[in-house]
Amino acid sequence: MKEYITSLTLAVSLLFSSALFAFDDHEKPKSLADMWVMVPNAGQQAQFEKAFKEHLKYRLSKKDSREWHVFVPTVGVDMNRYAVRFCCTSFKDVEAYNKWAKDNDIGKHWNETVAQYVASYEHFFGRMDFENSHWPDDGKKYRYFAVTEYQVKMGKSESVEAGKKTLSDNAKAMKWPYLWSWSWTIGGEGGLNLVIPYENFEGMTPPDKSFGEALSAHLKDDAKTAEIFSNWSDNFSSTNYTIWSLRDDMSMGQSE
Fold first, then answer.
1. The domain 2-11+23-127: what is its CATH number?
2. CA distances from 166 to 124, 225, 231, 234 (A)
3. 129-242 adopts what CATH topology?
């Protein structure tokens, strides 16, 4: 079982958190992100990174079709994590990728090279919401990614979708000067994710006018704005905020 789990190619058939959402993979092709979160053994971070880079070379030699990227927390909790992520694929393509991994001994090489330095693994899929996101290719090199994780209350799925659309539509209409991406986590506790990218820490400086102030000016209605935010906040039991930084030296398409 360990060999299968540590192959980085495990296919999991899961629903959205607590069956909050049902989806049809055929309706939104190539909207699936695949992410592993791993924690090295205490005191073996350097060995883990060295072995991981060696494993990347092996994957490249076998012509891995996925360009995996590695991120580490720079603000938040559990700072010893490494997130290994690829986007985007679809469930129907997972089987072919798993076959490639098996035919090329990807899991075997991982177990012989990296697994001895890993204390724990978590595996998730993410369903990207392209319609409500705003992430055009603007030619910029983003290194930091602020991720807000929302834990959704039971029975609030329709309200979340409506609120997400309202916020996104208005942000686009008033030309809010930031990029953002929405996604749903498949696996574990699930939840909604909002990602905002930054080129550097200076870019994280709050704007002169907050989103709430900009929205109120756009709608010309303070009461309506307050209602939108009140309804939005009522959908969630908790939130968690992490800023992840891209590790170019551990990512495919970057270090080769």
1. 3.30.70.100
2. 27, 11, 11, 15
3. Alpha-Beta Plaits (3.30.70)
